[in-house]
Amino acid sequence: MKTSKVIFWTSTLIIFIMEGVIPGFTSQTEMAKQGISHLGYPEYFGTALAIFKVAGALTLVIPQMPKCVKEWAYGGFAFDFIFAGISLWAVDGITPMLLLPMVFLGILALSYQYYHKLNNSSCC
Question: In which domain, by residue range, is 95 found?
């Protein structure tokens, strides 16, 4: 049980930092705006994305959140990583940067698996 908790919290905190903390502090930087526009998205999309990432990250780390809300957060992050990969592939082709969203998708899957293992629950 202790190993499961360590795996869950480590993977969940990685997602929290990468998808909640960092976007919360950097979404309005010039580099972030250039990244969004490079992929062909309007500037306001980056702001909306950052808001949803912070909300989703908080949902994952707050234990009192309802299970169904956590399911939505996991699903939202899965879509985020999948479509980030698709966007990068469509714009830049196959590059090393394409691995980044897939690595985080794997970390998210690990968090999700251990969330259910620790809570002895299935989906809503």
Answer: 2-119
Give the Å distances, CA to CA, from 26 to 4, 32, 39, 66: 32, 7, 17, 29
Query: Tell me: the pLDDT tens digits for 95-113?
Result: 998 999 999 999 999 999 9
Number of domains in the chain: 1
Residue-wise pLDDT for 29-65, tens only, equals 888 889 899 998 998 999 999 999 999 999 999 999 9
Token pair 């903390």 is found at: 21
- 55: tokens are 């909300």
Find where tokens 């969330």 sit. 115
- Evaluate whether 43 touches 32 at the Cβ level (below 8 Å): no
Closest CA relative to residue 19, chosen from 27, 31, 28: 27
